[in-house]
Amino acid sequence: MHKAGFVNIVGNPNVGKSTLMNQLVGERISIATFKAQTTRHRIMGIVNTSDMQIVFSDTPGVLKPNYKLQESMRAFSESALADADVLLYVTDVVESPNKNADFLEKVGKMNIPVLLLINKIDQSNQEQLGQLVETWHNLLPNAEILPISAKNKFGIDMLLKRIQELLPDSPPYFDKDQWTDKPARFFVSEIIREKILLYYDKEIPYSVEVKVEEFKEDDKCIRIRAIIYVERDSQKGIIIGHQGVALKKVSTEARKSLERFFGKKIYIETYVKVDKDWRSSQRELDQFGYNPE
Fold it and tell me: Could you say which of 54, 55, 90, 220 is the most buried, measured as most Cβ atoms within 10 Å of its Cβ?
């Protein structure tokens, strides 16, 4: 009998959801950096075997929205509660268990299997962990609690085994050779955005969106033209840097990562444009794909 199902990963920002997703899927699907709000979309990663298909879904960290983009990110997280066969609620050893209590309440009312994953246990000790398990058991009595370290791959095999046991009998939802629901262009923009998150300080990365204008692929190489959108002229100057040095660094690092990701030679051109208040305009957000429908 064939098993298949949707396994959705939710939780607060910075608890390690994207690192976990990458360990489970075995592809570098979700950009994982040390900055909160890295994941802005809902991204699917598909694991196939002869008798099983697991459709993992990474979502943005749950947060109280301050502007339209965050409202859209919150909607992606909420939508993950609606269509899961198994829910992975990720927390870690440092965050307060009652953070975002209203979202937790929704998780508590779900009548599908919920696996509560306490991540980063390498940063804790046995006593602290025992207290945390007890606290979480009181908060989500129906959830099954599994301590893990996504970064060190501890507990990942056990988690996968448990997911397989909980999956419903079903034919596959996607072609067996498919490993994500996102097009190639999506990963180009995510990888460029990751480099911006790594190389620029403070609020700059959160004011940035990347749009791939051109993606031409042949047997040997891929030619890419991408536009980096910012909200203000001052941000444009920072992204480009003195004599274009900063933008060149981002492009070079993105090209290296893209060559690893696609396994082909990459030629990339990047430009910077100002688009005031794109984070607050629904029309702009729809253009950038922030529509959870």
Answer: 90
The three-state secondary structure class of 192 is helix
Kindly report the number of other CB atoms within 10 A of residue 236's CB atom: 16
Q: Which residue has the tokens 């498919």?
A: 178
Quote the crossing angle between the two packed helices 156-166 and 17-25, to the nearest 10°: 70
pLDDT-derived band at 222 (thresholds 50, 70, 90) equals very high
228: nearest Cα among 260, 200, 256: 200
Element holding 87 (H helix, E strand): strand 86-92
User: What is the three-class DSSP state of 58?
Assistant: strand
- Beta pairing partners, 102: none
Taking alpha carbons only, the member of 166, 119, 190, 140 closest to residue 6 is 166
What's the rounded Cα separation, in Å, for the pair 69 and 75? 10
User: What tens digit of pLDDT does each residue of 177-208 get?
Assistant: 877 767 788 888 888 888 888 877 665 656 67
pTM of the predicted model as reported, rounded to 2 decimal places = 0.66
Sign of the alpha-carbon dihedral angle for 250, 256, 261, 267? positive
- DSSP letter assigned to residue 281: -
Spatial distance between the Cα atoms of 59 and 32, rounded to a whole number of angstroms: 12
Nearest Cα to Cα of residue 167 among 266, 85, 104: 85
